[in-house]
Amino acid sequence: MNFILEQKKVLRGAISIGDVSINLYNKYRNEKSKKEEFQDIFLISNGLVKAYIMESKDIKWPIIATTYDVLEEIRNILKINNETEQFDLKKINGTNHVYLYMIDFLSNIDNNETVYEDFLLQQLNEYSRKDKKIFEKYYWLLKYSEKRYDINQEHFNEFNNGVLI
């Protein structure tokens, strides 16, 4: 939540698990230690590829989420035998009839409701005229926020008429 309020930006992404080639990792580590200046080396892993596919296929809204399979893999790695352990992630319906488990960024909104509402209102106003796809993402945030806490409905009445996502 602090990032959203400070940077005035929202994030979308996926969490996955995978392996990195040990050869690529060693090359990265050796290159980094040889040079005083940091040299960018891009590593690709099957976890990164899985996260990219999940984010582009299943995650339409500005959230960071994962799937049940990834949660199960994390539980196995950590030797947690509780199938209901969700690591404080919130279960939601994703696109393509898949359940997602998202980081509930509104769980720590504390006393920032007004600042958050102002941010949402500003973004909705801006993108309602500019870009329908981006507007829909902020509208989803509005609807999600309405379910999570007592948002000031009066500010958002103009956006609640006839918009379908």
Structural account:
It contains six helices and four strands, in the order αβααβαββαα. With 165 residues, it is α+β, with helices and mostly antiparallel strands. It has two domains: 2-107, no CATH class; 109-159. Strands 1-2-4-3 form a four-stranded mixed sheet. A hairpin with a 5-residue loop joins β3 and β4. α5 (113-130) runs antiparallel to α6 (132-148). It starts with a helix and ends in a 17-residue tail after the last helix.
Quick overview:
By secondary structure, the chain is α+β, with helices and mostly antiparallel strands.
Question: What are the main properties of this structure?
Answer:
165 residues; alpha+beta; 2 domains; 4 strands; globular
How confident is the prediction overall: mean pLDDT? 80
What general form does the structure show? globular
* Ends apart, CA distance between termini: 23 Å
The total domain count is 2
Q: How many separate helices? A: 6
Structural class of the helices, strands and pairings?
alpha+beta
Largest sheet: 4 strands, mixed
Order of strands across the widest beta sheet? 1-2-4-3
Number of strands: 4
Over the alpha carbons, how many angstroms does the gyration radius reach? 19 Å
Give unreliable regions as ranges.
none
